[in-house]
Amino acid sequence: MKNPYLTSVGGPDQKDTHYFSGTGSKWDDQPLCDNEIEPYLRLTAAARRRRNSTNLQVGDFSPTHFHCLCCAASLRMANPSMKVVVLLRDPVARALSKFLELKQQRHLSSFYMDALEIYSYTFVSYVEAELAVMRRCSDTARRFRSSASPRSRLLAAAGRRPRGAAMPRGWGAGWDMGQWMEAQCYARSSILGWSMYDVFLENYAAQFGWRQMKVVYTHDLLTAPNDTLHAVEDFLGAPRARLHPNDKLDDLVNTRDCYSEACSRKRRQLRPYTEALGARAGGATALGDNALVDDLWDPAAAVAAGGAATASAAAASTGSSSSGASGGAAGTSPFGQAVAALRQLYAPHMQQLFTWADQGVIPQPPQAWRAAYADIGGSSTNGNGPGRRLQEGGGGGSSSKLRG
Asked: What predicted TM-score, i.e. pTM, was given to this entire model?
């Protein structure tokens, strides 16, 4: 932890408690939203005793709490004044990163059962199969949708929103059964579904209000790490950390080359995603495919790092953003077609983020996101809660350290 005034509820050796969410896997019997609260409060007190300080903010850094539909309500009951910080990455890059993580972590299958499920899949074949599952799931859920519920009208009357923004709705806070079911489709798909950021953001906003939430993008941490860190500290009300002048805040952990916090990497040391995937991509990849999905790899350092494949990918990525996935058109390779299908899937959800950003609810996302997730296939946001309709075409195919 860079800031001595911030610490984890689980202590220095347990940043992710998963206390209310479990692992977030669909293989978990159930979320732990009704987990006993007193031991959790004791963990908070223990964190303060370890530091022998009352001038300390204790946080929970479990990323699975974001996708857990009932966790926002549980956390709000535990602390209604809680401030929520969410770090978002390009949705296709996040999905690919999760796929590669589970492929690399098959030995942890007792904890991540998802790793066994995808054992026989390539990225291309998994996208094709999982998109079909998600479409069936969301189509079923939509049959249970209803008009605005009395609960949502009551919340709207309370006025807990910035001017111009629609009243957020969520689990136990305005969703009807169809919206709940559709959100479950995404919450139980850790690779593809967890990139439906608008659904999970709105769920938390429905409990805490937008003013108690701060959205940060990986692009911010890559391009202006100190400014981003200070902005988060200011939002939390914590004194700013005094960093060593040589601390560039540029370590990446749990990367594509070494999924462990014990072997951090610099951006210049990363291989391109397509090179790291190898045969797991699912067929030959074109030279430009890496630029479609890689928001961490630094093409400027590729030639210096060496390797023919790396240099070729660097040449193919010329003209793309080095700090965000390219907004260019997806390629014609099987991998490129899978990326195109995912962009189409995420487009309406991303457009909801753009709407919120234009309303001043969240910060403006990286410009590359707008280029990549523009009006694809006629998709649009309709303001009807989670799961702005999945697109039918193209289916063939909270730490200062980033994951690569």
From this structure: 0.82
